[in-house]
Amino acid sequence: MYAIEAKKLCKKYGDKAAVSDLSLTIDQGELFALLGTNGAGKTTTIKMLTTLIQPTSGDALIQGSSIRTDSTKVRQLSNVSPQENAVGTKLTVRENLEFIARIYGAKGSEVKEKANSMIEKFDMQEVAKQRAGTLSGGWQRRLSIAMALITDPEVLYLDEPTLGLDVLARRELWEVIRQLKGKVTMILTTHYLEEAEALSDRIGIMAKSKLKKIGTAAELKEYAGTDNFEEAFIKIAEEAVV
Amino acid sequence: MNTFHFSSRNTKEILRDPITLIFSLGFPLVLLFLLSAVNSSIPAEAADATALFRIENLAPGISVFGLSFISLFSAMLIAKDKTTGFMLRLFTSPLKASDFILGYTLPLIPMALAQSAVCYAAALFLGLEFSVNLLAALLVNIPITLVFVALGLLFGTLLNEKAVGGVCGALLTNLSAWFSNIWFDTALVGGWFEGLSNALPFVHAVNAARLACAGKYGDLMAELWWVIAYAVVLLTLAVILFAVKTKHSDK
Q: Could you tell me which residue, A203 or B94, shows the higher pLDDT?
């Protein structure tokens, strides 16, 4: 079974298509990067896969559960680390983690165990009692990902996880994401092409509401006839515009 | 159960914000003490003209005015949850629409009761007579609390964090003060101003609180029905709008 299987997924607003006929399969434990120019349809795709919005037509199965007919199950199976830090600023790091664990059904001592496990996994022992709003951007993003992982999702969506972070914080977060590879299926959206190239197993390039090309970074470069991934991206994205 | 977890989170977010304490307790108490001091300096022959500032009228009025900040707290939290992406995270969680609405509403009711209780407790030191009527006055404030909670939910859903500060922090608190009979008798202005005051819930909430304080229960419900009607209509609107916005988070 694929972790994600999208079948002719479409979203229209009036006559305007935000996503057209998107078909895609993602394997268990794969890190798939979804790239595209602004307005290409990445965010709409993620919103459909996370059941935030209903597709106009088509469907997608997340671990075999339909986003159209089984949204409750899909929500239990997946989690999101949004583009913004998305943490409760007046809650401590531990309180943020425990809150998310509870609303996903953890009870009693399990809540503390899960929070402890995340604090340890993300090296947050020193800041565990600190209010999230007082943390640096890098630490907040780290907490945001930990909040998404505390629910043991089988599919994790990382929306621009390193946006606005300095180089060191970004590299630290890359390491965190690398450690998750193979254990959790991840869809990464990013504008940093080197990030997609460094982290992903495969990359999908969206332009003008369509998924234009899928492949490894090497395959996409070969297709575009260049050694530079940025040039390959531009070429593939521009093909769609022409 | 998720409603409880979400309410608990919201309570912490609100109570840990120093602005909450400054506006919910500090500001109304300062006004209460200042106006009581002013009132005590007014000569006896002018006392009738300043009856509004006598403690038995001032305390219920300020207890209602203080509640207007409830809208600010609830709207600020909702708007902040939108802008920080926290709400997006929760929209993809197993939380239901009812968990959201109750979670944003319920924590504010005990906070409002505590705020009114502190206001009346301070008024006791300024000469307000203690009686069981004060308990009734606290309960009478629940419908106007719901009005302010509903307004917070509406504005928080519609506006961003910056706009919420202006609309709820400045505009709403001023409007609810002007049209309330707390600081001046709206009948003295007369005309459309008095008519508008009587059509809005604030003046009725203050009148109801004053009647409850005075133990005049016979006239109380006539005032309170206005406020209850506003609370029902505004809460219904807020719930519908929030539910619609939740379903259309792509717009």
A: A203
| Strand order across the A65-66 sheet | A16-26, A4-13, A57-62, A65-66
Percent of chain B with pLDDT over 70: 95
Contact state of B83 with A147 under an 8 Å Cβ cutoff: no
Threshold 0.90, pTM exceeds:
no
Answer whether A99 sits within 8 Å of B9, measured CB to CB.
yes
pLDDT in tens, A162-194: 887 788 888 888 988 898 898 899 999 988 899
Contacts of A87 in chain B (CB under 8 A): 84, 86
Cβ distance A89 to B9 less than 8 Å, yes or no, reads no
In chain B, the residue whose alpha carbon lies closest to the alpha carbon of A145 is B89
Q: Is A189 helix (H, G, I), strand (E, B) or coil?
A: strand
The single residue listed with the structure tokens 């003490």 is B33
Closest to B115 (Cα-Cα) out of B63, B169, B68: B63
Is B6 in the A-facing interface, judged by CB distances under 8 Å? Answer: yes
Cβ–Cβ < 8 Å for B21, B72: no
Instruction: Indicate the residue of A79, A99, A102 with minimum beta-carbon distance to B92.
Output: A79
Q: What is the pLDDT of residues B152-192, one digit of tens each?
A: 999 998 888 888 877 877 788 888 888 888 888 888 888 89
In angstroms, the Cα distances linking A108 to A98, A101, A112 are: 11, 11, 8
**Would you say the ipTM is above 0.95?**
no
Q: Where do the DSSP E strands lie in B70-116?
A: none
Which one of A53, A102, A104 has the shortest CB-CB distance to B249? A53
Instruction: Report yes or no: B183 at the A interface, CB cutoff 8 Å.
Output: no
Any idea where the domains of chain B sit in the sequence?
3-250
